[in-house]
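Tutorial, part two.
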Amino acid sequence: MGKLGEDVFDYRGRPLERAVPPNPIRVLLAERLPGEVGVFTSRALADEWIRRHRLSGVLTAYPLDEGCFEGAKRCGVLADAAVRQLAKDSQLVGSFTTAVQDHFHYREGEGD
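Running the prediction step on this input gives:
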């Protein structure tokens, strides 16, 4: 994904400054393995571990102390009407993710 603020916009067409807080955790979902396989405080630590074990999967940044739904609302990713509609469904709120979260793909330890 590109740098936030350069090619990511809110629903009104304004550039997003940040999709996640400055100190997110990074979670690796590995291919063909159930659930999360690693949680890291920095991308550098995650990269090193993924490379060492030659893993394939997606590393995604998540905010601390805030759900993805709230983070998307805070950043202006969702229109007010969408927030009201989505907030009615706990399943949607609980499973919500957004493409503006930093995420990186790996194949056999090599990042994209």
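The longest strand covers residues 25-30. In part three we will examine how such features are distributed along the chain.
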